[in-house]
Amino acid sequence: MIEIEKLIDALDPKSQIKLGDIPEIDLYMDQVIQLFENNFKDTRRNEKDKLLTKTMINNYAKGKLFFPIKNKKYSKEHVILISLIYQLKGALSINDIKAALETLNEKLIQGNFDLGSYYEDVLSLQEAGSQAFKKGLQERAEEASSKAASEEDPYLEKLLLILSLANMSSLYRRAAEKLVDEISGSTNE
């Protein structure tokens, strides 16, 4: 049987940049990168993996995924947007991320939107999603174990779970893409 509790513990969905973690003062790029390293280090698959690099941030800026910075410094709002981009890039293309965040960036430029409060809602929803994920993962593992019981092969049991999780991931990604198409007004039919 798959050691699902060990797997769940290794995923540690608590790795987040909370609003209180972001300084009130503007940060230089190296400070932004360090903030991400400190808060997301446990999410790396391998120690050598880079979470966020200067090149990534520069590409996000060139791609207009967030509003322009001033004096080579990143505001609290920039850090929040970079955090959202970081979280979205595992599931969506850069073009989809740009489309999803375009209106949010416009609201921030106009100055009539409380991104901090919205970000708290994002984190709250993510916490609820993490709890649902843990329960769902446990259920998928039990189903895989039950279905593979006749095989008595741990490899086949794990492969069954991998295939199930990959399918769920694909469904969630496709649902997110459909929502991006809705908010951006595009349809790919």
UniProtKB/TrEMBL annotation:
What InterPro entries does the record point to?
A: DUF1836 (IPR014975)
Originating species:
Mesobacillus zeae
Q: What is this protein called?
A: DUF1836 domain-containing protein
Q: Pfam family example for this protein? A: DUF1836
